Amino acid sequence: MEIVDYELFAVPPRWLLLKLETDEGITGWGEPIVQGRLETVRTAVSELVEEHLLTSDPLRTEYHWRKLYQSAYFRGGPVLMSALAGIDHALWDIKGRHYDAPIHQLLGGHVRDRMLVHEWLGGNSAEELADAASRARENGYRAFKLNSPHEFRPLETPAAVDRLVEQVAAVRDAVGDDAFLGLDFHGRVSKPMARELLGRVEPYDMMFVDQPVLSEYGDAFRSLAQQTTVPISTGERLYSRHEFKPLFVDNSVSVVQPDVTHVGGITEMRKLASMAEVFDVAVVPHCPLGPVALAASLQVGFASQNVVMQEQDLELHDADSSHGLELLEDPRAFEFEDGYINRLTGPGLGIEVDEDAVREKAQTQVNWHSPIWHHEDGSIAEW
């Protein structure tokens, strides 16, 4: 079997899908994207596929991963690793379809029958967030994450700190003590303010605080972890096992959140999960993207003991109205029940992409970019 062709499709709101074709008629799908850098990643995928994959045997997933990563003198980073990730998704999809097995079966078999998922909560005030949390709870979700604070200066006022605490308190009250609640600072907070905020949210029993500081300041994670009982997390802006390694060795994090679309795909995320297990670190994969990325992430999770929960942003509770799930032949492919997704049992990624729907949506211009935030003095704020 050989790879004979490929296509890339940009679809709203900010996704890029890759289709790999073989001479035996087996097709694989992947989702290579850096949100806001779609055209850059598109070019990187084309370069990698045309230079290294066409006419190759797609079943050699490990070899191809090494070749695509290691053959370049300059390697790593968000663009190249995300391009590699999407290609890796598609290769594993082909492999699973060739052997008529879900990918997790090829990774050693499933260790769980269903995966708990968490729902992102949006809102600007404590009241709005509490309302969103109550609706999500009614829709069957049992785990939640909110992004807060918004524009947050390196030194902030007591009132700004109090607003964040009020939001957390309101959401905790709305979802109850039998639900999981995570908080994502999104790298918006400085080290001294992160220390204060972590102390203030401790009474609300957070399952983690994600990105308490930017990943560039990795040496700050250990000191923060030593000063709080809140589990510290990071990972969506790290792109290989090598970047996670210092966090494990320094005992800086209790949870990591790699993204299967940025961390080199299924091949690398499976190895990262095993590496995290050695350090007793839980894995909660990041995935605010489309159904292909979610399926790829779940395949690793079903085969990895320490992947305890999965992020998603696809309105799984109402599949018939979900814009993201419109890209699938069966929008109910992710069977959502009681806060969990049931194990995917179909071959490959376990989903069937509706190519006609993809082609129709790909006619739309996709030009999403991260918003640019400013502090009140006009300086750039972290988004």
Condensed summary:
With 383 residues, the protein is of the alpha/beta class.
Description:
- It is built from twelve helices and 15 strands.
- The chain is an alpha/beta fold and 383 residues long.
- It has two domains: 100 residues, Enolase-like, N-terminal domain (Enolase-like, domain 1); 245 residues, Alpha-Beta Barrel (TIM Barrel), CATH 3.20.20.
- The strands form three sheets. Strands 4, 5, 6, 7, 8, 9, 10, 11, 12 and 13 form a ten-stranded mixed beta sheet that branches.
- Helix 2 runs antiparallel to helix 3 and helix 3 packs across helix 10.
- It is globular.
- Keywords: Lyase.
- GO terms for molecular function: galactonate dehydratase activity.
- Its EC number is 4.2.1.6.
- It is an enzyme of class 4 (lyase).
